[in-house]
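Hi W., the adenosine-5'-triphosphate complex you wanted:
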Amino acid sequence: MKITDLKVDIHGRQILKGVSVSLHEGRVHGLAGESGSGKTMTGLAALGLLPHGARATGSILHNGRNLLELPAKELNKVRGGEVAMVFQDPATSLHPMLTVGRQLTEHMRHHLGLGKVEARERAVDLLSKVRIPGAAEAYGRYPHQFSGGMRQRIAIAIALACSPRVLIADEPTTALDVTVQAGILRLLRGLCDELGLAVLLVTHDLGVMSAVADEVSVMKDGLIVETGPRAHVLRTPDHPYTRTLLSSLPDHTPLPTPTPTPASAPAPDHPAAPSPDAVPNPEPGHPGDPTRSPRPDDPVVPAPDPNPDGPVAPAPDPGPERSVAPEPDIAPTPDRGTESDPAPGTASDEERS
Ligand SMILES: Nc1ncnc2c1ncn2[C@@H]1O[C@H](COP(=O)(O)OP(=O)(O)OP(=O)(O)O)[C@@H](O)[C@H]1O
Ligand SMILES: [Mg+2]
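Structure:
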């Protein structure tokens, strides 16, 4: 998806003043910036969900079509189909009176025209994919029977129901307890790699950025003031506003240059390549490698994670799996020394054991 010179005004007030951003398969593009700078509006525009009274110019190209020019009916097919969104608060994005299975299958039956049995199978498969323990039983439960982290996983499963190519995640971890945030980010990163999704990750948290984004754009007052590879923007920012954002991080210390190793040696155009235990680029031939063709023995369901919402600690050996660990100097989530999602009285505690 390529957004070019997107300008949005609502009742005469200019909200976006010429935003350009490109999303690519298997890449996470982080969008940071102060409150009211237009991050959500950019995501909504990409989904064709601008509020009433909004006028948009520029282009949002996806699959050769400009979404800004699509008739409502066509746009409806794109929304929730090719382009999906995960919102900040899973409590409001899930219907409290409908089972998880119903919410997943209605979506699929509407968009994909699947029969009941097929839709159920796919729903259980998706619940496993987002690492809901006991997916078959979870299918018949209601949202309130899950903890916050698990509810956000379910919201992500619903977003994936129709195999989107683009996923807009607007502050997907902000409403969650810090102890479960890392698990959700790890899941998003894994899905991006595994499914080749193009992800726009909206967050005001630069620590989150450093943990998962490949590219980062920084917004201010309806404009992108800086964009580039994560390591460049977060370590050697060009724009004074990015520097202000970085210096406002708690315990901000100057960013060290990582020790060069064959895997992390700085490329000439990337003065500070990310450390290998941050988010390494997929190794050639690994399922995350965008150039690799799918193989019949590729896993459909990721390896079970006994504690999917636990904080992400840097793995001693990154191994073949991509880990999502924040760069050491920009930690989004303080380690509280707990490994469980603490919501009491929810199904997740027993399910996770
Ligand atoms: N429905 C609406 N009608 C009119 N103005 C709106 C509407 N929604 C948002 N705005 C305005 O558009 C601007 C950008 O809002 P947006 O929600 O995109 O900011 P944001 O960067 O996502 O902020 P936050 O970090 O607080 O979520 C704000 O000034 C906001 O007041
Ligand atoms: Mg917002």
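The pocket of adenosine-5'-triphosphate (ligand 1) is lined by residues 10, 15, 33, 35-41, 51, 204 (CB under 6 Å).

W.
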